[in-house]
């Protein structure tokens, strides 16, 4: 499983940054998900971290052969609580969306304080079976690791966070 992690400042613009970075990682990995479920769910978890915790937010994207796992770390020790939002409520639906769309989800205390809230979504496997299908899976995983490494180098060189950028934590 290949993992990419990044930190965000606790500002509202970080929700959009998290979506864009996740989209970039998935595009480079060649992973497509129906109805942009991953983007919606990362938006919800980052929004919850902004509303209920203070300080830097950590996002980790892990892509395996059959599963995408996205984890969001915040500084609050309070466990997430599923709410039942009324028709006129403007919030309170984030964890209900995670529960409805994710194949698995949960949370755990983070080492050093805070918590990590995560979700998983299934990925389509190779269409072949047997040895040929396994070869396709290994070749595809190797290709995306190389492409992701190249993307990380380009991002570091060309899009280094500037002091004027309030969103990306250094």
Distance between the termini: 26 Å
Q: Sheet with the most strands?
A: 5 strands, antiparallel
- What is the N-to-C succession of helices and strands? EHHEEHEEH
Question: Roughly how many Å is the radius of gyration?
Answer: 17 Å
Low-confidence stretches: 126-148, 150-170
**How many extended strands?**
5
The overall average pLDDT, rounded, is 78
Silhouette: globular
* Class per helix and strand makeup: alpha+beta
Q: Assess the beta-strand content as a share of residues.
A: 15-25%
| Cross-sheet strand order for the largest sheet | 1-2-3-5-4
- Percent in helix: 40-55%
Instruction: Please tally the helical runs, counting DSSP H or I stretches of 4 or more residues.
Output: 4
Task: Give the tags.
single chain, 170 residues, alpha+beta, 5-stranded antiparallel beta sheet, 4 helices, 41% helix, globular, disordered C terminus
What does this entry look like structurally?
- By secondary structure, the chain is an alpha+beta fold.
- Helices cover 41% and strands 21% of the residues.
- The chain has helices at residues 14-29, 37-52, 94-101, 130-158; strands spanning 2-8, 57-63, 67-74, 104-109, 115-122.
- A five-stranded antiparallel sheet has the order 1-2-3-5-4, covered by helices on one side.
- Helix 1 (14-29) packs antiparallel against helix 2 and helix 2 (37-52) packs antiparallel against helix 3 (94-101).
- The model is unreliable at 126-148 and 150-170 (pLDDT under 50).
What's the SSE blueprint?
Layout (H helix, E strand, L loop, with lengths): L1 E7 L5 H16 L7 H16 L4 E7 L3 E8 L19 H8 L2 E6 L5 E8 L7 H29 L12
Antiparallel strand pairs: 1-2, 2-3, 3-5, 4-5
Helix pairs in contact: 1-2, 2-3
């Amino acid at each position: 499983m290949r993992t990419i992690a990044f930190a965000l400042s606790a500002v509202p613009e970080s929700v959009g940054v998290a979506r864009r970075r996740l989209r970039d990682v998935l595009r480079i990995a060649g992973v497509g998900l129906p109805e942009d479920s991953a983007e919606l769910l990362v938006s919800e978890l980052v929004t919850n971290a902004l509303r209920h915790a203070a300080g830097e937010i950590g996002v980790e994207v892990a892509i395996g052969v059959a599963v995408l796992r996205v984890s969001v770390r915040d500084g609050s020790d309070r466990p997430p609580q599923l709410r039942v939002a009324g028709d006129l409520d403007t919030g309170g639906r984030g964890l209900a969306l995670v529960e409805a769309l994710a194949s698995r989800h949960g949370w755990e205390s983070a080492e050093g304080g805070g918590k990590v809230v995560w979700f998983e979504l299934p990925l389509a496997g190779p269409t072949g079976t047997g040895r040929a299908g396994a070869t396709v899976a290994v070749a595809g995983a190797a290709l995306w690791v190389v492409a992701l490494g190249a993307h990380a180098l380009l991002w570091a060189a060309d899009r280094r966070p500037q002091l004027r950028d309030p969103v990306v934590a250094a």
